[in-house]
């Protein structure tokens, strides 16, 4: 018998949540095949089978919190896979007799005929794999998850699947009542098939850690935000002129992010205190930039960083940012991707945000917030013109960064973005 253990999860990470089992008890497993996925506050960890065999026991359920070296289940290297429930060779007895609207035959209800077990009755199907939120909602709504088609990988039933089933039930025609309700009687009931007024879902390990880190950033820093706005005309024109060529020759879509990344790196070089950190009673100045890029994924916000981003040009930054964003959305980030960042950029503009005050990615000292590009009237050489404008925000730790440095950082960033040719001189 071989125990399946929770592997080391990375620096300072001691627990995870069982996100999804990919194998059922009795399934044959090849060596190296993924058995279960664990979700930490930073990444999703796949636990593979060390040897070929059969999964005999799942000791932890989806949604359970586990610690490093906990037993997740057992495998038998010599066992044979358990066959699925066999279908009856003869006509099966109707499993849904209780739901039949026709009357049973007299023989079936004869008080003198003792009930005989059906020799060839079909075994009930196994309960489909489902997410914890789906099971809770199904229990509250009284819906059988075996009747709900799962759209998740491997047929897993998720909460949206249950909500869709409830909506379908609400849309189905309702059988007429057998007796009319007296006119003076007022009957109050919830809409048929409507979603419960409230539902409760346990926070994932990642969401809890995100909450803890955000509170720590607010409590451990002197948080302040400074704003400026950028005329994006020059960058918009440059991107429109170059994006097809870049995608054709280098296989990467040219977005605005690598331009902001390069401008931020050059601004950090001009004002290195924004890239520094406090360590006890010392200031640690970083002579390199590990640039964090906030990425929204299905599992929550993650901030992987491009190592030594200051050594890359705009094209190199575009390729690296696209690569780490894809790994983040695919759940393939490593601990190295998520540690040792020195400065972060977050882009709420992709979701339509016009202005915000981003929270510092502690223990870093600064974070740059980008926002929606919006046509606005501005004064240029005494004339009112319409230009594509963007608000930018720098949130910073006022203990180490003075307001003067924060303002000058944003002014430098603005100058570089409004004259992108100047970014070639580094």
Note down, in words, how this protein is organized.
This protein has 426 residues and is an alpha+beta fold. Among the domains are: 2-76, RNA polymerase II/Efflux pump adaptor protein, barrel-sandwich hybrid domain (OB fold (Dihydrolipoamide Acetyltransferase, E2P), Beta Barrel); 224-424, 2-Layer Sandwich (Chloramphenicol Acetyltransferase). Helix content is 25%, strand content 23%. The chain has eight helices and 19 strands. The chain has helices at 132-141, 159-171, 205-220, 233-250, 257-270, 314-329, 335-338, 403-418; strands at residues 2-5, 15-21, 28-29, 34-39, 44-48, 53-58, 65-67, 71-76, 223-231, 277-279, 282-284, 291-293, 295-297, 300-302, 305-306, 343-347, 366-370, 374-380, 383-397. The strands form five sheets. Strands 9, 12, 15, 16, 17, 18 and 19 form a seven-stranded mixed beta sheet that branches. A four-stranded antiparallel beta sheet has the order 1-8-6-3, with no helix packed on it. A four-stranded antiparallel beta sheet has the order 5-4-2-7, with no helix packed on it. Strand 18 and strand 19 (383-397) form a beta hairpin. Helix 1 (132-141) runs parallel beside helix 2 (159-171), helix 5 crosses helix 6 and helix 5 (257-270) crosses helix 8 (403-418). The longest helix has 18 residues, at 233-250. It starts with a strand and ends in an 8-residue tail after the last helix. Mean pLDDT is 81; it is low at 86-126 and 175-183.
């Amino acid at each position: 018998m071989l125990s399946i253990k929770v592997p080391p999860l990375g620096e300072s990470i001691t627990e995870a949540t069982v996100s999804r089992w990919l194998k059922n008890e009795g399934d044959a497993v090849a060596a190296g095949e993924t058995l279960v996925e664990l979700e930490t506050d930073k990444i999703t960890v796949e636990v593979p089978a060390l040897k070929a065999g059969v999964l005999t026991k799942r000791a932890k359920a989806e949604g359970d919190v586990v610690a490093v070296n906990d037993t997740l289940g057992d495998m038998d290297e010599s066992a044979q896979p358990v066959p699925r429930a066999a279908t009856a060779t003869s006509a099966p007895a109707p499993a849904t007799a209780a739901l039949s609207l026709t009357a049973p035959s007299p023989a079936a209800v004869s008080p003198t005929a003792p009930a005989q077990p059906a020799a060839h009755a079909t075994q009930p199907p196994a309960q489909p794999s489902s997410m914890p939120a789906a099971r809770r909602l199904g229990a509250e709504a009284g819906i059988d998850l075996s009747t709900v088609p799962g759209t998740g990988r491997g047929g897993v039933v998720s909460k949206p699947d249950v909500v869709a089933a409830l909506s379908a039930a609400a849309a189905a025609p309702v059988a007429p009542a057998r007796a009319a309700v007296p006119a003076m009687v007022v009957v109050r009931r919830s809409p048929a098939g409507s979603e419960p007024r409230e539902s409760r879902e346990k926070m994932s390990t990642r969401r809890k850690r995100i909450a803890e880190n955000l509170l720590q950033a607010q409590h451990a820093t002197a948080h302040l935000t400074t704003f400026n706005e950028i005329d994006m005309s020059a960058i918009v024109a440059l991107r429109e002129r170059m994006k097809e060529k870049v995608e054709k020759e280098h296989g990467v879509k040219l977005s605005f992010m690598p331009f902001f990344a390069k401008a931020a790196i050059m601004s950090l070089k001009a004002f290195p205190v924004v890239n520094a950190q406090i360590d006890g009673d010392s200031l640690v100045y970083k002579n390199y930039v590990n640039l964090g890029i906030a990425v929204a994924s299905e599992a929550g916000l993650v901030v992987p960083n491009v190592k030594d981003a200051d050594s890359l040009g705009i094209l190199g930054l575009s390729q690296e940012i696209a690569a780490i964003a894809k790994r983040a959305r695919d759940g393939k980030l490593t601990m190295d991707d998520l540690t040792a960042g020195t400065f972060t950029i977050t882009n709420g503009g992709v979701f339509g945000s016009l202005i915000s005050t981003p929270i510092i990615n502690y223990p870093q000292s600064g974070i740059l917030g980008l926002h929606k590009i919006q046509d606005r009237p501005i004064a240029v050489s005494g004339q009112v013109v319409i230009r594509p404008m963007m608000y930018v925000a720098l949130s910073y730790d006022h203990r180490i960064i003075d307001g003067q440095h924060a303002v000058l950082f944003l002014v430098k960033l603005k100058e570089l973005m409004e004259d992108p040719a100047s970014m070639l001189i580094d």
